[in-house]
Amino acid sequence: MRLSSTTSLALVGLAGSALAHVGPTSRRKTMGFGPVHPHAKFHTSPASFAKASVFTSDPYDIARSFVTELLQDQLSEDNEFALRKDSYTDSATGVTHVYFRQMVNGLEVADGDISVNVKGGTVISYGDSFYRGYAPGVTLMDEPTTPGPHAEFCGLLQGQLVERLTLLREHAAVANQVTMSGAQLTDEPYERMQRLFRWNCDHLRTPHELVERGFGKTSDIFDPRGALLQFMIAATPDDAVVADILNNHDEIIAGMTSWFEPQLVGDNNAVLVEMINNVPDTVSPVKAKAVYIQLPDGDKTMLIQAWRFEVEMQDNWYEAIISHQVPHRILSVVDWASDAPIPSEPEQRQPARYHVFPFGVNDPSEGGRTLAKENFDPLASPLGWHVIPVSNDPLSSNLKKKGQYSNYTTTFGNNVFAHENWEGQNGWLHNYRPDGGDDLIFNYPYDPKITDKSDSLDEAKKYINVTITQLFYTSNLVHDLYYRYGFDEVAGNFQQHNFGRGGEEGDAVIANAQDGSGFNNANFMTPPDGQNGRCRMYLWNTANPYRDGDLEAGIVIHELSHGLSIRLTGGPANSGCLGWGESGGMGEGWGDFLATVIRSKALYSDYPMGAWAANQAGGIRNYPYSLNESVNPSTYKTLDKPQYWGVHAIGEVWAEILWVVAQRLITKHGFTESLFPPLPLEDGTIPLGDFYRVPEFIATDVPKPLVPKHGNSLIVQLVLNGMKLQQCRPSFFDARDAIIQADQVLTGGENFCDLWLGFAEKGLGIDAAVQGRTPWGGGVRTDGFNVPAVCRSEDTPEPSPYPEPEPEEPGDDEPEDDWPWLHI
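The line above is the sequence of Extracellular metalloproteinase; the predicted structure tokens follow.
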């Protein structure tokens, strides 16, 4: 389906006439969609395979043999697979996570992934999205007869916009009555859908129009510049850049210089990556690589030759796949930057005076500011938070060095570089950082005053030392905490130096405090392992004086958790696994859930998200996270509602489901006041103390994983272990099954029924199902409240009339959007 430019403009105009609400700040443009892969599945009960040919216990050989047998006669010299170098063994569980990428005619299949989980010489689960079919010829293939993912996405969304607008017109007759009651006649779902349409679909026809104007007709199919420039037209938020490209297309292409760098795809597969400079509206050279991508064509799937680009912009970091052939169509796009959405306009109230708070105090409204000590974990941060080996220090040439280490007295260290970014620019290396002096004491006053609105920003800037110190402190503690639960070097964590423990280094978190590129927001950019993650925290103009997102731990934890979930899902070298759909929504939900678990107390309470920063008692979610269905009625089927079409709203439902599951484990195992595991003894061993127990089911000759004793620490461990097990682009079903299998690996399935009962309580039981998913999250879902037969008791509700499907059967993951709204 083709949409004309006039159709797009008409929809934009309709939004302006039908809606009067304007948010408090501008929104960051972001794009996200891709093809649906019905054949992609996560299997927790893999069929046995012939191991007679495997005379080794090496997990990589076992995984390779398994995949070879799985693919059987599909393999050939032109259709093979490569072992990815980011495969690793989890030292805590003994599970080896092995990642394979499909190679056809020497090119990667960008969305062709098989992840195999091996333990004790056995394949315990695997995810599979490999292309099933014979390798095409090396010449360019025919285009699919069905619309591409971009056109399908925009066509479906246009239909929903028309339906929504019709409903608005039908209700317009009661507008006066509604206004008299004191309410505003607004429609948030329509606003969000309209923004999504504008961001993603304004330039759907542009590739065809450029060809009609003569651009690209004689372009070299081996030259990526034309395809890249076509993507930039769609990606840039700057209309002046678009106009410049359209008016000076050939001149801009001629000025785009490039060079080649080798890149290892797998164990024996090296490709050349083209680095392209002088690309409009980018902040670094663009990486370009020829790939295949799988596109549906009726009831089959075909391979299309395309360019894969990594495009870093001021506010976005895209992984985009654009067709080789003209017109250059966008086939898939993932934004590695994840937003904290913009809240609705809050009621103004007189703020109290706040101080920097210790870890565990979510925001200044919960407790006073204390002078906390550097509390680094010697396992996670062996050198502490302020020391970097000179060889990994980006500032080492400008420092006085002691031996081979740079010892900083500022908020600059191996895990985090924290600093102000008032200008909102990408430069960060020499930005201002507070200096604690030789004694490393970062102690600054914090007493913001009510001011005239014109002076509010200057008042907030007075306390930048407090802000940066808090961001540095929180970020380092989150680094150390996640490390102890398995987010270590081989798993892709963020460190400048990896202490010889494996993984890619040189990727500490760049943490911008009071970032000047916006208000009422936060975001995190997660490139593959070995490239710096970037966290941008903003001021919130929701109160006078302004409130600082850096001082609300839940917001910081949420953003840092994007880096966690993206690096753990599908392997640390693959940042495209949580880009849209239910998978993208869970990327948001994990951040909410972990932030809420970290702030929770032994005495149960409901928790809103972002309440302090947004100056809204109920937070910036639709509901607080709660066990009370009258407070939070969310179930799996809630995703069908239009206001839940988007990754942030989808994430709310996932976080609520995990919150309910967590409370079941807490009821069973109790609660620990501190989620931090005990520090190692002098001999390096971890004391069990009151934190860990050792399961008895594991044979004595197998390394025994440490099992947290308490429900809140156990659920954190299971959630992180589940991220490692699940496949790239998981659905709710896949992530649920991965968590249940994580418990099987860790405890022998001790909590099998507790987990199933928790998921089923919120509609994600074994009979849950979905039909007709749309790219932004629509579809028709069926809540499933049934659990496996072994978990049923007299107290269990009557089972659903639906049959019990295999865990991997209820549905496949489909692409959805990523827009900022109502949530962190």
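Note on the example: The CA atoms of residues 232 and 280 lie 7 Å apart. The longest helix spans residues 149-171.
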